[in-house]
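Key result, reporting period 2: structure in, sequence out.
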């Protein structure tokens, strides 16, 4: 933003050399970036100096570096609008979308570090293999709607029930929540725990007002919901601000408790499901 012009002694606007210099500095600067370079888990940080201008996001800087200094730098992105979930990385140690992280929000006195997500196998530079997530998704029982309520094939639903699952549908599958979750990141329990993204997905199906499927036994066993100790790290990094822990995981945990540790509650559930079907 340009500095307001000063008024000189003759009453005229005077844009001084000092102000011009100040504005140029605000618009244009050289910043330092440390980008992880390497393949299959082996590599090192390489430092690049890059001219940046006001308004740039981390992905802009990575693209400039790729175009001018490191043509072989591997980076995944698609939309540059925070909607495809492809540009996930760890920026200054925090899981973030590169296209939604403004350089002006990062400490200019230190290099910006950019590294690949750690919870998934490393491919090259900033790219990881996230295909495990898509295999997990296939394991979750699909949507199974009850019979229509009316002869024209339509259903009646309460608005509150419709609204409850809308939040979960905002997920862009960036997998930043999976990356930050210590169960996957530190303990590598990929075979036993589906992770917060897929607990959100399971919650969207389980709480859907038309769904009749029962995913609770799988949530307890194959999907490993018990591994989650509600640290809420996943909620903190979600770029769509989905309240993963409070609105998805805790209600699912309550369903597991109701079904496996509360026999009376289980009977009520079976009875109400039969009535619905
Ligand atoms: S709240 Fe649960 S799922 Fe989320 S990061 Fe913590 S342990 Fe993982
Ligand atoms: S729940 Fe949020 S952090 Fe996790 S994959 Fe979806 S959008 Fe990304
Ligand atoms: S490029 Fe699509 S979310 Fe960043």
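The corresponding designed sequence is given below.
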């Amino acid at each position: 933003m340009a500095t307001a012009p000063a008024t000189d002694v003759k009453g005229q606007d005077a844009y001084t050399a000092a102000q011009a210099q100040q504005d140029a500095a605000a618009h244009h600067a050289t910043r330092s970036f440390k980008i992880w370079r390497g393949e299959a888990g082996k590599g090192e940080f390489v430092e690049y100096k890059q001219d940046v201008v006001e308004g740039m996001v981390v992905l802009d800087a990575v693209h400039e570096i790729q175009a001018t200094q490191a043509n072989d730098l591997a980076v995944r992105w698609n939309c540059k609008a925070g909607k495809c979930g492809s540009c996930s990385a760890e920026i200054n140690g925090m899981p973030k979308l590169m296209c939604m992280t403004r350089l002006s929000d990062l400490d200019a006195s230190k290099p910006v570090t950019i590294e690949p997500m750690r919870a998934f196998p490393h491919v090259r530079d900033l790219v990881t293999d996230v295909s495990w997530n898509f295999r997990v998704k296939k394991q979750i029982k699909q949507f199974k709607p009850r019979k229509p309520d009316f002869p024209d094939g339509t259903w009646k639903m309460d608005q509150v029930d419709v609204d409850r699952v809308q939040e979960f549908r905002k997920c862009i599958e960036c997998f930043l929540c999976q990356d930050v979750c210590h169960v996957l990141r530190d303990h590598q329990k990929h075979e036993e725990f589906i992770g917060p993204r897929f607990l959100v997905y399971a919650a969207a199906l389980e709480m859907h007002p038309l769904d009749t499927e029962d995913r609770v036994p799988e949530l307890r066993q194959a999907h490993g919901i018990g591994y989650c100790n509600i640290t809420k790290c996943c909620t903190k990094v979600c770029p769509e601000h989905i309240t993963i822990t409070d609105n998805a995981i805790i209600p699912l945990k309550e369903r597991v408790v109701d079904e496996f540790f509360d026999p009376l509650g289980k009977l009520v559930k079976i009875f109400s499901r039969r009535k619905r079907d």
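Residues 77-80, 82-87, 97, 99 surround FE2/S2 (inorganic) cluster (ligand 3) (CB under 6 Å). Confidence is low (pLDDT under 50) at residues 1-12. This case is discussed further under Risks and Mitigation.
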